[in-house]
Each structure stands twice: as C-alpha cells, then as structure tokens.
Amino acid sequence: MSDFRSDTVTRPTDRMRKAMASAEVGDDVYGDDPTVNSLQAYAAERLGFESALFTSTGTQANLLAIMSHCERGDEYLCGQSAHNYRYEGGGAAVLGSVQPQPIENEPDGSIHLQKAKAAIKADDFHFAVTRMLSLENTIGGKVLSLDYQRQARKFCDDHGLQLHLDGARIFNAAVKSGCDVTEITKHYDSVSVCLSKGLGAPVGSLLLGTKAFIDRATRLRKMVGGGMRQAGILAAAGRIALEQGPHRLYEDHENAEYLSAGLAAIPQLEINPASTQTNIVYARCRTGRASQLRDYLADLGIQVTAGDPIRFVTHLDVDRQDVDRLLGAIQGFYQS
Ligand SMILES: *Cc1c(COP(=O)(O)O)cnc(C)c1O
Questions:
Q1: How far is the CA of 329 from the centre of ligand 1 (A)?
Q2: Which of 9, 54, 57 to mutate to test the pocket of ligand 1 (most atoms within 8 A of CB)?
Q3: Ligand 1 pocket: which residues have CB below 6 Å?
Q4: What is the pLDDT of residue 212?
Q5: Crossing angle for the helix pair 249-264 and 170-177, nearest 10 degrees?
Q6: How far apart are CA 308 and CA 178, in angstroms?
Q7: Residue 72 confidence (pLDDT)
Q8: Ligand 1, atom 3: nearest CA belongs to which residue?
Q9: What is the pLDDT of residue 162?
C-alpha cells in the first residue's frame, strides 16, 4: 500500500510513539503541561519568535492568527487560492467576523503587491478596515522567493498592515530556498506551522508571534474549543517532528522530482516538471480519465487525489520504490 494523497497521512514513528507513551504531562489549560511548554519554548526559539502556541490544527492556528490581528469588521488580504480562504470552512468570516479580500495569485504563488495595494480600502466608513496581508509558503508546493517576502514586509510596513504567513509547509520552503527557516520567518508578524504534514507528527500545529499576540491567541483558542488538557502526549511527538523532520524533507523533494520526470515521460499526462519545487506534483490527464486512473491505482493499493489536475504528494511514508511502483502502475493503466 502507498498513499500519495497528502503528506498528512504519515503514521507516527516508533520513536514518536515511545515519546508519547512516556511523556510528562499536566493540564495545559492551567499551563501545567511541561511537554507542551517545552515544545512551545523550543519552537519560539527555533523559528525566531518571542512566543509559540500549540494548536490542534493548522486551520485553528490560522484562525487564531486572523482573529488576533483583526477585530470584527476588519478584513485581511489573501490569495484567491490561499488555504485560509478556500479550505478552512470560511472560519475567518464565520467565527471571526473578519472579511477576506482575496486577490488572484500569480503563477508563482505570490500576490502582486500592486494588486494588494489596490485592494487596501480607503479610510471611509463604507469599507471594512484592511488590517493584514496573509501569504502562504509553500503554496501548492511552490516556494515564495526570499526577495518577494522582503518586499512584502516593506509593503506591510509602508501601509500599516500586519503580515501573517500560513507556513503549514514552511520547512519545505526553507529546504528549497537553501536557508535557515528564520530567514523566512523574520519577515512576518506571525507564522503558523503544521507539525502533522511532512514533519511527520500525528497531530498538531504551532502559531508563533510576539508574547502579546500569543496571549490573545491563547484566549481565542480557549474560545473556539482548542484548550486541550494533557496535550503533552501530542506535543511529545510534535517535538520530535520539529527537531528531526526538517532534516529529511530533501528526500521528499528528490522523490517528487523523480516522480515528476517519470510522469513527464507518459504521453497521456500533461505536466510541467519545472512546477515541481518541493513535495507536491501535479499532472493533468489529457484523456480526461482521472477518476478511472485513480480507481485503477486504488485496486493496486496506491492512493492518489484525482482532481483536475491529479495531485501526488511525497512524504515520510513513501520511498523511491513506491514511486517506481506508482509510475509502473500508471503506465500499466494506459497500456490496458
Ligand atoms: C494543511 C494546511 C493547513 C492546515 O491544515 P490542518 O489540516 O487544519 O492542519 C493550512 N494551510 C495550508 C497551506 C495547508 O496545506
């Protein structure tokens, strides 16, 4: 069996399970869980922020970020394809009364800063108050350049906006950019990070920012039902993910590149190998039989996401052999 649907499907390693079993715990709502406290302190230091908050999901971390930066009736600028606009149930609007102002993403995943500028509302009571810009890195597996992120920081400073990064896969971005993660995080007021994707933890995300920001987010986390008790059980695995996970992400990128080249050699698929930058590969089915392909692969024990395009994600639990088996199976499908 191999699962290319997402890097969220990884199972905790033996080392994680052992750490979870023996984790020292306390009631984290009282601030008493030493394993959570130590993960938060380590994460803040590792990512270059004053404070960090352990959250149940990346969706929750993004929601808390938006609600902590913005008041009811404010708005945030984000990409049309931003996770925190499209894939989070409209939480910012529903739970935060914060209006998203989406802007079409450029092909490289960035938001053109001229377009962002045009979307900032004038100080007029007809309009929502534009409070922040939210970027995503990686976005659809693509990496924002360090230079672009520097410009975005300046743009936000010039216009009095907060700058948030949905950094669900920020370590993939750092690996691809060939820099320490702090070279990315230093541009942002807040960052969310998923421990449960390529880093391999079973559950959990982090939100990072100043102490005042994290204090506000902690209050809001309780409000949305995210105050967990002996959460050290989860944080123990999260700590291993954060410490060890980044070192092997390059393998996922290499496997994705290898897969990408293999798919490009299949005439029935349309793929731009240059668009494979990290651990996500997209391929369009020229014959339009994506769901048949998915079912064919599923019968062979290989799972993929059959949208248009089809998405393949590499991670901890798929290796080069799995990629070869996937490529062989796809060739088999087109020959059958
Ligand atoms: C996965 C993901 C999230 C959050 O996901 P959860 O499933 O809620 O942990 C946020 N942003 C991006 C870009 C993601 O890929």
A1: 29
A2: 57
A3: 57-59, 62, 83, 136, 166, 168, 194, 196, 205
A4: 98
A5: 80
A6: 31
A7: 97
A8: 58
A9: 98
**Burial classification of residue 15, based on how many CB atoms lie within 10 Å of its CB (0-12 exposed, 13-18 middle, 19 or more buried):** exposed
Nearest to 297 by CA among 315, 323, 273, 317: 323
pLDDT at 288: 85
**Closest residue to atom 5 of ligand 1, CA basis:** 58
- Reported as a pLDDT band with limits 50, 70 and 90, residue 323 is very high
- The answer to whether the 14-244 and 248-335 domains have the same CATH topology is no
pTM assigned to the model: 0.97
Q: Which residues contact 197 (CB under 8 A, 6 or more apart)?
A: 6, 7, 8, 168, 169, 315
Q: Would you identify the CATH topology of the domain 248-335?
A: Aspartate Aminotransferase, domain 1 (3.90.1150)
* Domain extent listing, the chain: 14-244, 248-335
| Best mutation site among 166, 190, 224, 278 for ligand 1 pocket (most ligand atoms within 8 Å of CB) | 166
Interatomic CA distance for residues 216 and 53, integer angstroms = 11
CATH code reported for the domain at 14-244: 3.40.640.10
- In this structure, the dihedral spanned by the alpha carbons of residues 215, 216, 220 and 223, taken in order and rounded to 10 degrees, is 70
Using the 8-state DSSP alphabet, how is residue 155 labeled?
H
The two structure tokens encoding residue 116? 């962002």
Alpha carbon 98 to chain centroid distance? 21
Kindly give the distance from the C-alpha atom of residue 87 to the centroid of ligand 1, in angstroms, as a whole number.
8
Residue-averaged pLDDT of the chain: 97
